[in-house]
Specification:
alpha/beta, TIM Barrel, eight-stranded parallel beta barrel, CmoO-like, Luciferase-like_dom, oxidoreductase activity, acting on paired donors, with incorporation or reduction of molecular oxygen
Protein backbone atom coordinates (compact mmCIF):
# COMPACT_ATOMS: atom_id res chain seq x y z
CA UNK A 1 0.00 0.00 0.00
CA UNK A 2 1.35 3.48 -0.80
CA UNK A 3 2.89 5.12 2.24
CA UNK A 4 2.82 1.99 4.39
CA UNK A 5 6.17 1.90 6.18
CA UNK A 6 5.80 -1.33 8.17
CA UNK A 7 3.66 -4.47 7.91
CA UNK A 8 0.25 -4.48 9.54
CA UNK A 9 -1.54 -7.77 10.21
CA UNK A 10 -4.75 -9.12 11.76
CA UNK A 11 -5.39 -11.50 14.66
CA UNK A 12 -8.90 -12.96 14.64
CA UNK A 13 -10.23 -15.02 17.55
CA UNK A 14 -13.38 -15.73 15.50
CA UNK A 15 -15.52 -14.21 18.24
CA UNK A 16 -19.14 -15.37 18.42
CA UNK A 17 -21.34 -12.35 19.07
CA UNK A 18 -24.40 -12.62 21.29
CA UNK A 19 -27.33 -13.92 19.25
CA UNK A 20 -25.03 -15.41 16.60
CA UNK A 21 -23.57 -18.88 15.99
CA UNK A 22 -20.15 -20.39 15.33
CA UNK A 23 -21.17 -20.60 11.68
CA UNK A 24 -21.77 -16.86 11.66
CA UNK A 25 -18.37 -16.22 13.28
CA UNK A 26 -16.52 -18.34 10.72
CA UNK A 27 -18.32 -16.70 7.81
CA UNK A 28 -17.47 -13.31 9.35
CA UNK A 29 -13.81 -14.34 9.48
CA UNK A 30 -13.91 -15.27 5.82
CA UNK A 31 -15.41 -11.91 4.85
CA UNK A 32 -12.95 -10.06 7.09
CA UNK A 33 -9.95 -11.88 5.61
CA UNK A 34 -11.03 -10.87 2.12
CA UNK A 35 -11.62 -7.29 3.27
CA UNK A 36 -8.23 -7.02 4.97
CA UNK A 37 -6.49 -8.56 1.98
CA UNK A 38 -7.98 -5.84 -0.22
CA UNK A 39 -6.82 -3.18 2.27
CA UNK A 40 -3.23 -4.43 2.11
CA UNK A 41 -2.80 -6.25 5.42
CA UNK A 42 0.18 -8.61 5.53
CA UNK A 43 -1.19 -11.58 7.50
CA UNK A 44 -4.45 -12.95 8.86
CA UNK A 45 -3.90 -15.21 11.86
CA UNK A 46 -6.43 -17.20 13.91
CA UNK A 47 -5.92 -18.53 17.42
CA UNK A 48 -6.45 -21.85 19.17
CA UNK A 49 -8.82 -21.69 22.14
CA UNK A 50 -10.93 -24.53 23.57
CA UNK A 51 -14.16 -24.90 25.55
CA UNK A 52 -15.06 -21.23 25.09
CA UNK A 53 -18.59 -20.46 23.97
CA UNK A 54 -17.50 -17.14 22.46
CA UNK A 55 -14.65 -18.37 20.23
CA UNK A 56 -15.05 -20.48 17.07
CA UNK A 57 -11.42 -21.15 16.07
CA UNK A 58 -10.64 -24.25 18.17
CA UNK A 59 -9.84 -26.33 15.05
CA UNK A 60 -7.30 -23.75 13.98
CA UNK A 61 -5.75 -25.49 10.98
CA UNK A 62 -9.22 -26.25 9.60
CA UNK A 63 -10.21 -22.58 9.89
CA UNK A 64 -6.95 -21.59 8.22
CA UNK A 65 -7.75 -23.79 5.23
CA UNK A 66 -11.16 -22.16 4.93
CA UNK A 67 -9.64 -18.68 4.98
CA UNK A 68 -6.80 -19.54 2.62
CA UNK A 69 -9.26 -20.97 0.09
CA UNK A 70 -11.20 -17.69 0.19
CA UNK A 71 -8.24 -15.35 -0.36
CA UNK A 72 -5.47 -14.93 -2.90
CA UNK A 73 -2.42 -13.15 -1.48
CA UNK A 74 -2.65 -12.46 2.26
CA UNK A 75 -0.62 -14.82 4.46
CA UNK A 76 -2.78 -17.10 6.62
CA UNK A 77 -1.40 -18.28 9.93
CA UNK A 78 -1.92 -19.49 13.47
CA UNK A 79 -1.65 -17.06 16.31
CA UNK A 80 -1.15 -19.60 17.57
CA UNK A 81 -1.19 -23.36 17.62
CA UNK A 82 -0.67 -24.48 21.23
CA UNK A 83 1.93 -27.12 20.46
CA UNK A 84 1.75 -29.12 23.74
CA UNK A 85 -1.91 -29.85 22.90
CA UNK A 86 -0.79 -31.84 19.84
CA UNK A 87 1.72 -34.37 18.58
CA UNK A 88 4.39 -32.56 16.52
CA UNK A 89 3.82 -35.03 13.67
CA UNK A 90 0.15 -34.02 13.46
CA UNK A 91 1.04 -30.33 13.23
CA UNK A 92 3.74 -31.02 10.64
CA UNK A 93 1.26 -32.94 8.50
CA UNK A 94 -1.54 -30.38 8.91
CA UNK A 95 0.64 -27.41 8.04
CA UNK A 96 2.44 -29.36 5.37
CA UNK A 97 -0.96 -29.95 3.79
CA UNK A 98 -1.86 -26.27 4.05
CA UNK A 99 1.46 -25.22 2.53
CA UNK A 100 1.05 -27.75 -0.29
CA UNK A 101 -2.39 -26.35 -1.11
CA UNK A 102 -1.51 -22.66 -0.63
CA UNK A 103 2.26 -22.42 -1.26
CA UNK A 104 4.09 -19.44 0.13
CA UNK A 105 1.13 -18.19 2.18
CA UNK A 106 1.16 -20.21 5.42
CA UNK A 107 2.62 -19.11 8.79
CA UNK A 108 2.96 -21.39 11.80
CA UNK A 109 2.81 -19.45 15.04
CA UNK A 110 3.37 -21.62 18.11
CA UNK A 111 2.56 -21.16 21.78
CA UNK A 112 2.99 -23.37 24.83
CA UNK A 113 -0.06 -22.40 26.93
CA UNK A 114 -3.13 -24.66 26.78
CA UNK A 115 -5.45 -21.94 25.49
CA UNK A 116 -8.18 -22.97 27.91
CA UNK A 117 -9.06 -23.85 31.51
CA UNK A 118 -7.22 -26.55 33.53
CA UNK A 119 -9.93 -29.23 33.14
CA UNK A 120 -10.01 -28.80 29.37
CA UNK A 121 -6.21 -28.70 29.23
CA UNK A 122 -6.14 -32.06 30.98
CA UNK A 123 -8.62 -33.44 28.43
CA UNK A 124 -6.40 -32.20 25.61
CA UNK A 125 -3.03 -33.16 27.04
CA UNK A 126 -4.01 -36.36 28.87
CA UNK A 127 -1.79 -35.71 31.87
CA UNK A 128 1.22 -34.41 30.00
CA UNK A 129 3.26 -31.67 31.63
CA UNK A 130 2.07 -28.10 31.25
CA UNK A 131 4.39 -26.96 28.51
CA UNK A 132 7.74 -27.76 30.14
CA UNK A 133 8.67 -29.97 27.19
CA UNK A 134 7.83 -27.27 24.65
CA UNK A 135 11.47 -26.80 23.51
CA UNK A 136 11.80 -30.53 22.85
CA UNK A 137 8.50 -30.65 20.97
CA UNK A 138 9.56 -27.63 18.92
CA UNK A 139 12.83 -29.33 18.01
CA UNK A 140 10.95 -32.45 16.93
CA UNK A 141 8.58 -30.39 14.81
CA UNK A 142 11.42 -28.52 13.11
CA UNK A 143 13.14 -31.78 12.30
CA UNK A 144 9.94 -33.04 10.66
CA UNK A 145 9.94 -29.96 8.39
CA UNK A 146 13.57 -30.56 7.37
CA UNK A 147 14.32 -32.21 4.00
CA UNK A 148 13.58 -35.93 4.16
CA UNK A 149 16.75 -38.02 4.25
CA UNK A 150 17.16 -41.47 2.62
CA UNK A 151 16.15 -44.15 5.09
CA UNK A 152 14.39 -41.70 7.42
CA UNK A 153 11.75 -43.64 9.31
CA UNK A 154 9.55 -40.86 10.68
CA UNK A 155 8.36 -38.49 7.96
CA UNK A 156 5.72 -35.79 7.64
CA UNK A 157 4.00 -36.28 4.29
CA UNK A 158 3.28 -33.61 3.28
CA UNK A 159 5.50 -31.43 5.43
CA UNK A 160 9.07 -32.66 5.12
CA UNK A 161 11.24 -30.27 3.13
CA UNK A 162 8.64 -27.50 2.97
CA UNK A 163 9.58 -23.95 3.89
CA UNK A 164 6.94 -23.01 6.46
CA UNK A 165 7.91 -20.02 8.63
CA UNK A 166 7.78 -20.80 12.33
CA UNK A 167 7.06 -18.03 14.83
CA UNK A 168 7.17 -18.31 18.60
CA UNK A 169 4.38 -16.55 20.48
CA UNK A 170 4.52 -15.45 24.07
CA UNK A 171 2.92 -13.38 26.81
CA UNK A 172 5.98 -13.52 29.09
CA UNK A 173 9.73 -14.02 28.69
CA UNK A 174 10.02 -17.80 28.18
CA UNK A 175 9.30 -17.95 24.46
CA UNK A 176 11.05 -14.62 23.91
CA UNK A 177 14.35 -16.07 25.06
CA UNK A 178 13.81 -19.33 23.18
CA UNK A 179 12.94 -17.49 19.95
CA UNK A 180 16.06 -15.38 20.29
CA UNK A 181 18.32 -18.34 20.93
CA UNK A 182 16.93 -20.18 17.87
CA UNK A 183 16.95 -17.12 15.60
CA UNK A 184 13.19 -17.26 15.03
CA UNK A 185 10.70 -14.38 14.74
CA UNK A 186 8.83 -13.59 17.93
CA UNK A 187 5.26 -12.34 18.41
CA UNK A 188 4.34 -10.86 21.79
CA UNK A 189 0.75 -10.90 23.05
CA UNK A 190 0.56 -7.25 24.05
CA UNK A 191 -3.19 -7.31 23.53
CA UNK A 192 -3.63 -8.99 26.93
CA UNK A 193 -0.20 -9.00 28.62
CA UNK A 194 1.21 -5.46 28.50
CA UNK A 195 3.14 -5.79 31.77
CA UNK A 196 5.75 -8.11 30.25
CA UNK A 197 6.03 -6.28 26.93
CA UNK A 198 9.33 -4.46 27.34
CA UNK A 199 11.13 -7.18 29.30
CA UNK A 200 10.14 -9.81 26.72
CA UNK A 201 11.23 -7.73 23.73
CA UNK A 202 14.49 -6.78 25.43
CA UNK A 203 15.28 -10.39 26.31
CA UNK A 204 14.41 -11.53 22.78
CA UNK A 205 16.82 -9.04 21.23
CA UNK A 206 19.57 -9.66 23.77
CA UNK A 207 19.45 -13.43 23.31
CA UNK A 208 19.04 -13.39 19.51
CA UNK A 209 21.44 -15.53 17.51
CA UNK A 210 21.36 -15.25 13.70
CA UNK A 211 19.85 -18.23 11.88
CA UNK A 212 19.52 -19.30 8.27
CA UNK A 213 16.13 -17.59 8.15
CA UNK A 214 16.82 -14.40 10.13
CA UNK A 215 20.06 -12.46 10.46
CA UNK A 216 18.44 -9.95 12.85
CA UNK A 217 15.62 -10.06 15.42
CA UNK A 218 12.10 -9.66 14.06
CA UNK A 219 9.44 -8.78 16.63
CA UNK A 220 5.73 -8.56 15.97
CA UNK A 221 3.56 -6.91 18.61
CA UNK A 222 -0.06 -7.87 19.27
CA UNK A 223 -2.40 -5.00 20.13
CA UNK A 224 -6.12 -4.26 20.28
CA UNK A 225 -7.52 -1.52 18.04
CA UNK A 226 -10.90 0.19 17.83
CA UNK A 227 -10.99 2.97 15.26
CA UNK A 228 -14.04 5.00 14.30
CA UNK A 229 -14.87 8.34 12.73
CA UNK A 230 -14.80 9.98 16.18
CA UNK A 231 -13.32 9.10 19.55
CA UNK A 232 -16.63 8.64 21.35
CA UNK A 233 -17.73 6.01 18.84
CA UNK A 234 -14.37 4.24 19.10
CA UNK A 235 -14.67 3.96 22.89
CA UNK A 236 -18.24 2.71 22.44
CA UNK A 237 -17.01 -0.06 20.10
CA UNK A 238 -14.28 -1.03 22.59
CA UNK A 239 -16.86 -1.62 25.33
CA UNK A 240 -17.81 -5.02 23.87
CA UNK A 241 -14.32 -6.35 24.51
CA UNK A 242 -14.24 -4.73 27.94
CA UNK A 243 -17.51 -6.45 28.87
CA UNK A 244 -16.25 -9.79 27.54
CA UNK A 245 -13.10 -9.55 29.64
CA UNK A 246 -15.13 -8.45 32.67
CA UNK A 247 -17.23 -11.59 32.30
CA UNK A 248 -14.05 -13.66 31.99
CA UNK A 249 -12.53 -12.41 35.24
CA UNK A 250 -15.88 -13.00 36.96
CA UNK A 251 -15.74 -16.62 35.84
CA UNK A 252 -18.68 -16.29 33.48
CA UNK A 253 -17.13 -16.15 29.99
CA UNK A 254 -19.54 -16.12 27.07
CA UNK A 255 -20.25 -14.61 23.71
CA UNK A 256 -19.19 -11.11 22.68
CA UNK A 257 -21.74 -8.62 24.11
CA UNK A 258 -23.13 -5.62 22.22
CA UNK A 259 -21.43 -2.32 23.08
CA UNK A 260 -22.68 0.04 25.74
CA UNK A 261 -22.31 3.74 26.55
CA UNK A 262 -22.38 3.00 30.28
CA UNK A 263 -19.56 0.69 31.38
CA UNK A 264 -19.45 2.41 34.78
CA UNK A 265 -22.74 0.81 35.78
CA UNK A 266 -21.41 -2.67 34.93
CA UNK A 267 -18.16 -2.94 36.88
CA UNK A 268 -16.79 -2.27 40.34
CA UNK A 269 -13.71 -0.01 40.68
CA UNK A 270 -11.33 -2.92 41.23
CA UNK A 271 -12.79 -4.71 38.20
CA UNK A 272 -12.39 -1.62 36.08
CA UNK A 273 -8.74 -1.41 37.11
CA UNK A 274 -8.11 -5.05 36.22
CA UNK A 275 -9.84 -4.85 32.84
CA UNK A 276 -8.22 -1.58 31.82
CA UNK A 277 -4.77 -2.76 32.99
CA UNK A 278 -5.02 -6.00 31.04
CA UNK A 279 -6.32 -4.27 27.91
CA UNK A 280 -3.90 -1.34 28.16
CA UNK A 281 -2.31 -2.45 24.90
CA UNK A 282 -5.11 -0.89 22.86
CA UNK A 283 -5.39 1.82 20.23
CA UNK A 284 -8.71 3.67 20.56
CA UNK A 285 -9.86 6.76 18.68
CA UNK A 286 -10.27 8.40 15.31
CA UNK A 287 -7.60 7.89 12.61
CA UNK A 288 -5.59 10.98 13.59
CA UNK A 289 -5.39 10.12 17.30
CA UNK A 290 -4.72 6.44 16.58
CA UNK A 291 -1.91 7.41 14.21
CA UNK A 292 -0.30 9.37 17.05
CA UNK A 293 -0.80 6.48 19.48
CA UNK A 294 0.70 4.05 16.98
CA UNK A 295 3.74 6.23 16.33
CA UNK A 296 4.42 6.44 20.08
CA UNK A 297 4.00 2.68 20.45
CA UNK A 298 6.42 1.91 17.63
CA UNK A 299 8.93 4.39 19.00
CA UNK A 300 8.78 2.84 22.48
CA UNK A 301 8.89 -0.80 21.40
CA UNK A 302 10.83 -0.85 18.12
CA UNK A 303 8.39 -3.49 16.84
CA UNK A 304 8.89 -4.58 13.23
CA UNK A 305 5.22 -5.38 12.70
CA UNK A 306 1.87 -4.96 14.44
CA UNK A 307 -0.83 -7.63 14.53
CA UNK A 308 -4.21 -6.24 15.48
CA UNK A 309 -7.09 -7.81 17.38
CA UNK A 310 -10.41 -5.93 16.99
CA UNK A 311 -13.31 -7.81 18.64
CA UNK A 312 -16.07 -5.43 17.57
CA UNK A 313 -19.69 -6.57 17.84
CA UNK A 314 -21.00 -5.12 14.57
CA UNK A 315 -19.19 -6.53 11.54
CA UNK A 316 -19.63 -3.46 9.37
CA UNK A 317 -18.14 -1.31 12.13
CA UNK A 318 -15.31 -3.84 12.47
CA UNK A 319 -14.54 -3.69 8.76
CA UNK A 320 -14.65 0.10 8.93
CA UNK A 321 -12.25 0.04 11.89
CA UNK A 322 -9.67 -1.99 9.96
CA UNK A 323 -10.01 0.38 7.02
CA UNK A 324 -9.50 3.44 9.23
CA UNK A 325 -6.57 1.77 10.96
CA UNK A 326 -4.84 1.32 7.63
CA UNK A 327 -5.47 5.00 6.92
CA UNK A 328 -3.95 5.87 10.29
CA UNK A 329 -0.90 3.79 9.47
CA UNK A 330 -0.36 5.68 6.24
CA UNK A 331 -0.40 8.97 8.19
CA UNK A 332 2.71 8.02 10.21
Amino acid sequence: MPGLTFPLSVLDLCSISEGATATDALHNAQAMARHCEALGYQRYWVAEHHNMTGIASAATSVVMGYLASSTQRIRIGSGGIMLPNHAPLQIAEQFGTLESLYPGRIDLGLGRAPGTDPATANALRRGRTDGEDFPQMLDELRQLFAPIEPGQRLRAVPGGGLNIPIWLLGSSTFSAQLAGRLGLPFAFAGQFSPDYLFSALRLYRESFRPSDEYSEPYAMLGINAYVADDREQAHYLASSHQQAFLNLIRGTPGQLPPPTHDMESLWQPHERHQVMSTLAGSLIGDPASVSTQMAELLERTGANELIVNSPIFDQSARQHSYGLLMQATQQL
